[in-house]
Amino acid sequence: MKAVRYSTFGPAHEVAELIDLPAPEAPGAGEVLVDLEASPINPATLLQFEGRYGAKPPALPVMAGSEGTGKVTAVGEGVTHLKVGDRVQILFGSSGNWRETIVAKAARLFALPEGADPLQLAMFGVNPPTAWLMLNDYVKPEAGGWVIQNAANSGVGHNVIVLAKSLGLKTVNVVRRAELAGELTALGADVVLVDGPDLAQRVRAAIGDGVLKLGIDAVGGEATARIGASLDDGGTVVSYGLLSGEPFRLDAREVVFRNVALRGFWLQHWFMSAKPQEMQEVFGRLIGLIAKGVIKVPVAATYPLARIHEALAHAAREARGGKVLVTGPAWKG
């Protein structure tokens, strides 16, 4: 069977290796076999290939791929909650999922609704919970309040817009190109602004007396400082990415005199610490929103696993217009 790995760090489309592995045998007790359906290429994925992600692998080579969906093709002894044909989510904690068939522990999987968009389901394991937890876990959401985010055209950014609206929050969405405003406004964005040195002044002009206590940052560098300067006194910046490659910056005057705080977010910490009931509640809510069409991230393209180099090159482009996903033998699109 085909699988993807990398043996050295570098641009993903250059260092990815499409290899042949023996097909797995029948699943053992408590296991299932899953044929890959679809898996998104997230910014974190590209950083992992480059060796610039937070959790650098201890040794190379490394099998690539994380979240996605698949179809169960065989069920091992003792597995009663899944059956052949079920669509399942391959969670973020799994690794090496860019392979045609995956052996998975059944206890970590659950059946997904058949009526929901399979591509949206393939993307729900990382970006939607990231957006949901950042909106809820740092500043208590209050209806009518505001949240500001940069990289608003990203997958997480799209989720922040629709999930904030479901919580009664309004959004200020910071982008690098003015032509993105129409797309985000159609999604439900209340304000879209192009980033720049005077961002804080333009934010205040846009929201008037609105309460703005939460900022979400994916860029780092001076972009973090501009988000912090836009917040009310006592506000919190939650940083989950470093797209600029520059260290986070927050003006000392904001920290000392206005009590603006900077917090970091990494979804892996939540996966490691959250109780099963909490995870079920969060995932259940998000799956319900996907099934209703509330969460719908644009898809730029899908590529079969055999065209992984094209897929990775496409995912690395700016202004690509949506998420790029790789597909496996279970994909029927």
Which descriptors would you attach to this protein?
333 residues, six-stranded mixed beta sheet, alpha/beta, Rossmann fold, single chain, Quinone Oxidoreductase, Chain A, domain 1
Element layout with pairings:
Layout: E1 2-6, H1 12-15, E2 16-20, E3 31-40, H2 43-50, E4 62-63, E5 68-75, E6 87-90, E7 101-105, H3 118-122, H4 127-136, E8 146-150, H5 155-166, E9 170-175, H6 181-187, E10 191-194, H7 199-207, E11 212-217, H8 222-230, E12 236-239, H9 252-257, E13 261-264, H10 267-273, H11 276-291, E14 299-304, H12 308-315, E15 323-327
Parallel strand pairs: 8-9, 8-11, 9-10, 11-12, 12-13, 14-15
Antiparallel strand pairs: 1-2, 1-4, 3-5, 3-7, 3-15, 5-6
Helix pairs in contact: 4-5, 7-8
How is this structure best described in words?
It is a single chain. The protein has helices spanning about 10-15, 45-50, 120, 125-135, 155-165, 180-185, 200-205, 220-230, 250-255, 265-275, 275-290, 310-315, and strands at about 1-5, 15-20, 30-40, 60-65, 70-75, 85-90, 100-105, 145-150, 170-175, 190-195, 210-215, 235-240, 260-265, 300-305, 325. The chain folds into two domains: about 1-125 and about 295-325, Medium-chain alcohol dehydrogenases, catalytic domain (Quinone Oxidoreductase, Chain A, domain 1), CATH 3.90.180; about 125-270, NAD(P)-binding Rossmann-like Domain (Rossmann fold), CATH 3.40.50.720. It is built from twelve helices and 15 strands. It is globular and about 60 Å long. The strands form three sheets. Strands 3, 5, 6, 7, 14 and 15 form a six-stranded mixed sheet that branches. It has a six-stranded parallel sheet with strand order 10-9-8-11-12-13, with helices on both faces. Helix 9 (about 250-255) links the parallel strand 12 (about 235-240) and strand 13 (about 260-265). Helix 7 packs parallel to helix 8.
